[in-house]
Write a structure and sequence with these properties.
Strands 1-2 form a two-stranded antiparallel ribbon. The chain has one domain (2-29, 49-270). The protein starts with a helix and ends in a 5-residue tail after the last helix. The chain has 275 residues and is mainly α. Helix content is 68%, strand content 2%. A hairpin with a 3-residue loop joins strand 1 (161-163) and strand 2.
Length: 275
């Protein structure tokens, strides 16, 4: 069982790397339209392999309808809200080493101080991270990842990607995902102590929790969208640009022109992302 789990983890990492390489190759081979208006729209959407991405999006929607959404619905109905909040807080707390590392890599000293303060407060007073007393004191949770760090360093996002199961991404965020999958100290500890089920359990539980927390939002977004795929693409790019800026306005980081009334914390399209 342990070796099988390890094979699954290594296989997933290899698949992610191959997906990034394939996207770069396919993106480079895509033909740019000759018509000026079509060319402008082509560059704005940044989706040179759109037919492939749409096919993967449909596949993900099918998996969601058959597996993830029903499981998330039961999860939301059966578990008390307090327990759901505790699980989410605990999973967020486990990401602290990665968040802190990215704070420092981005030169965000204030963010690092807040991350340390949250972890210390919630781990001690919040019963190992299940509570969020730091949030009650005004020190809110702010996730950071290596994809954001690469963006802060000036790396472009590259062509838009729709990954099987993981959902919306791009080469920059995909690199970040792969790096964090091998650099997470908890996963490293689990791998070295023959507790390989822990990384997969965290991954699955986080995916279910994210989906359960956005059941209504995603349903409403899908019903109100003329093209749900295009809405997910635009919203994903907008949210990622905002996360890289930490919510600050900066004209040096382009943001797609889409405005939604829904909470941008969204996990609408991000609900497809198990992260």
């Amino acid at each position: 069982m342990i070796s099988k789990t390890r094979e699954i983890l290594h296989g997933a990492r290899i698949a992610l790397v191959l997906a990034a390489l394939s996207a770069l190759v396919l993106g480079g081979c895509a033909s740019v339209p000759n018509d000026p208006e079509e060319r402008k729209a082509y560059y704005e959407t940044n989706d040179p392999i759109e037919p492939v991405n749409r096919a993967i999006f449909s596949f993900n929607q099918g998996l969601d309808a058959v597996i993830l959404k029903p499981v998330a619905s039961v999860y939301k109905q059966v578990l008390p809200q307090t327990l759901q909040d505790g699980i989410r807080n605990f999973l967020n707390n486990l990401r602290t080493p990665l968040i802190l590392a990215n704070n420092l890599l981005q030169g965000d000293i204030d963010g690092a101080h807040q991350t340390i303060a949250r972890f210390t407060t919630n781990s001690i007073i919040g019963f190992g991270g299940f509570g969020d007393p730091a949030g009650d004191l005004g020190v809110k949770y702010r996730s950071e990842d290596f994809g954001q760090t690469l963006g802060v360093w000036g790396m472009g996002e590259g062509p838009y990607l729709m990954l099987p199961i993981f959902g919306p991404s791009n080469p920059r965020d995909l690199i970040g995902l792969v790096v964090e999958s091998v650099a997470d100290p908890i996963d490293i500890w689990a791998d070295n102590t023959d507790r390989d089920a822990i990384p997969i359990s965290r991954l699955l539980l986080r995916g279910i929790d994210r989906r359960a927390g956005n059941l209504k939002t995603i349903d409403e977004l899908e019903k109100s969208s003329l093209d749900f795929y295009a809405t997910v693409r635009s919203l994903y790019r907008q949210v990622r640009a905002d996360e890289i800026r930490n919510g600050d306005t900066d004209d040096t980081i382009p943001s797609p022109s889409i405005s939604l009334d829904e909470d941008p914390a969204l996990a609408g399209p991000r609900a497809q992302v198990i992260k």
